[in-house]
Amino acid sequence: MLRTKVAIIGAGPAGLLLGQLLHAYGIENIILERQTPDYVLGRIRAGLLEEGTVALLDKIGAGARAHQEGLVHDGIELAFGGSRHRIDMKAATGKTVTIYGQTEVTLDLMNARRAAGLTTVYEASDVKPQDFDTDHPKVSYVKDGVSHEIACDFIAGCDGFHGVSRASVKPSAIETFERIYPFGWLGILSETPPVSHELIYSNHARGFALCTMRSTHRSRYYVQCSLDDHVDQWSDDRFWDELKRRLDQEAADNLITGPSIEKSIAPLRSFVAEPMRFGRLFLAGDAAHIVPPTGAKGLNLAASDVHYLSGALREYYDEKSSVGIDGYSQKALARVWKAVRFSWWMTAMLHRFPDTEGFGARIQIAELNYLVGSKAATTSLSENYVGLPY
Ligand code: APR
Ligand code: PHB
């Protein structure tokens, strides 16, 4: 039987970053991933990194490209009532965010793993975490029709929302909390320069819109849509028209349109599973929690989880202490819930809900006016947006 210290399930950002952090601490690990590398790299997700996330990439020697190609932003713009208002996050907090696609982060992590000569088994099917309530956990899987088992000290479930790790825990041991939002985000990617050099979050009677980017020549735009919508109902022309209607006049006039190179609809959800540890199985990233994309906290939360988890495992091996692993769930969840709250609050303030009629809409505008006019409120938004400390 194969043996390793930590068997990691899932080679998304959480699993890959955890693998490199453990490697940096001299803790051997194997990653099992259901898909192919190309499939994993083809998933388009948000692209905003907190300083803490960039620091973790630096720590494992995979941050060079994020520094070279990432765009450092000092602030954001909020559009409502026909005009735009800038929030200077750097002035409020001294911190910035880096715009750098999650696909690029994943590629950098994959390359770092390959360079370190670490094992990743792609196209591993029927992956099953087992015996994690004993001192001898193992993970079984099938590769090319052959069954295998890996004996390990710990299992890290980094296999996303639909993964097998959380599903392997007996229902009585886990409590889940969920909110489903009654709308989705229709997103497109286009080879056009961004409409503004910073992100624009727009609250509009027709629904939320977001102007973001991947680089100075590639833009990412989103509009709130109905959950019943299908991408084929959204021609590029219809998308651009709708986006323009939801922006202030200046932004609408400056918007450069072009053919979409990707178009997809994503539902919005808040979800948290408690606890994040079950004996010798730990959950990290989307396997344990989901946030709506407003504020782009998903990847950054995966990063803080694996920071805590790798530190706890280092303590276990180097200092023969279980204090870290015993405290992991509580420590991670404290930060997770703050980001869940922030993402929920941003979502509530900026979107049209079925019951956002007169009163709800006025409350949103009052809140936005308060936000841009109050130093305390601006600071509160900013410190959450740039990322709360670890
Ligand atoms: N066996 C093996 N691998 C699996 C299994 C399984 N049964 N189920 C899922 N996986 C893999 C998926 O194919 C995926 O590559 O686990 C990986 C999980 O990656 P993500 O879904 O990207 O989750 P995570 O690494 O936690 O990343 C968090 O990335 O997904 C975004 O919105 C998310 O931004 C957030 C961040
Ligand atoms: C993105 O770039 O895709 C993005 C940025 C900020 C968000 C959500 C998505 O709040």
Shape: globular
Distinct ligands: adenosine-5-diphosphoribose, P-hydroxybenzoic acid
Question: Reading side by side through the largest sheet, how are the strands ordered?
Answer: 7-6-15-16-17-14-18-21
Q: In angstroms, what separates the terminal alpha carbons? A: 38 Å
Identify the CATH class of the largest domain.
Alpha Beta
Number of helices: 13
The CATH topology of the largest domain, please?
A: FAD/NAD(P)-binding domain
Which CATH architecture of the largest domain is right? 3-Layer(bba) Sandwich
* Structural class label: alpha/beta
CATH superfamily of the largest domain: FAD/NAD(P)-binding domain
| Count of spatially separate domains | 2
Roughly what percent helix? 25-40%
Low-confidence stretches: none
Radius of gyration, CA atoms, in whole angstroms: 21 Å
The proportion of strand residues reads 25-35%
The count of β-strands is: 21
Average predicted confidence as pLDDT: 97
Query: How would a textbook summarize the main sheet?
Result: 8 strands, mixed
Task: Describe the protein.
This protein is an alpha/beta fold. 38% of the residues lie in helices and 27% in strands. Strands 7-6-15-16-17-14-18-21 form an 8-stranded mixed β-sheet, with helices on both faces. Strands 9-3-2-13-20-19 form a 6-stranded mixed β-sheet. Strands 1-12-11-10 form a 4-stranded mixed β-sheet, with no helix packed on it. The protein starts with a strand and ends in a 5-residue tail after the last helix. The model has no long low-confidence stretch (mean pLDDT 97). Adenosine-5-diphosphoribose binds at residues 9-15, 32-35, 40, 45-46, 102, 124, 127, 158-160, 163-164, 285-287, 298-299, 302. P-hydroxybenzoic acid is lined by residues 46-48, 199, 212, 220, 293-296.
